[in-house]
């Protein structure tokens, strides 16, 4: 959550444009999320995660550092990607969620499902 948003009530929040960028590392695929992942964007994110997780033994890292909002449909998309990756003997890992999103992940118990990392090196290299 940006410092400016911390001073506002939810009714005053404005949506930050959502973007998703995919890059490949030697041992993983990184999906970098930025902005506000609302219902109108969640389907595209879900589709991309499921597509990437459909490969044999995928390791997909979702970089959440630039994310300033995610709603339940976005969380559902993360779970869909996770389930597809597990089906293909792989995994989806979360990278650097902002504190308020990490709190949401804890409240919804998704931290029991996903491994959460602070650094890209740890997310890629830890077993």
Overview features:
127 residues; Transcription Regulator spoIIAA; 5 helices
Outline the structure in words.
Helix 2 (39-53) runs parallel beside helix 3. The protein has helices spanning 3-6, 39-53, 72-87, 99-107, 120-125, and strands at 19-24, 29-37, 59-70, 91-95, 115-117. The chain is globular. It is α/β, with parallel strands linked by helices and 127 residues long. The N and C termini lie far apart (30 Å). The mean pLDDT is 91. The protein has one domain: STAS domain (Transcription Regulator spoIIAA, 2-Layer Sandwich). It contains five helices and five strands, in the order H-E-E-H-E-H-E-H-E-H.
Tell me about the biggest sheet?
A: 5 strands, mixed
Low-pLDDT segments? none
Task: Note the run of SSEs as H and E.
Answer: HEEHEHEHEH
Distance between the termini: 30 Å
Helical residues, percent? 25-40%
- Average pLDDT reading: 91
From the alpha carbons, calculate the radius of gyration and give it in angstroms: 14 Å
**Strand residues, percent:** 25-35%
Shape: globular
Q: CATH class, anyone? A: Alpha Beta
The secondary structure category is alpha/beta
Give the strand order, joined by hyphens, for the main sheet: 1-2-3-4-5
- Count of folded domains: 1
Named CATH architecture = 2-Layer Sandwich
So what's the oligomer here?
A: single chain
CATH superfamily: STAS domain
**How many extended strands?**
5
CATH topology grouping: Transcription Regulator spoIIAA
Number of helices: 5
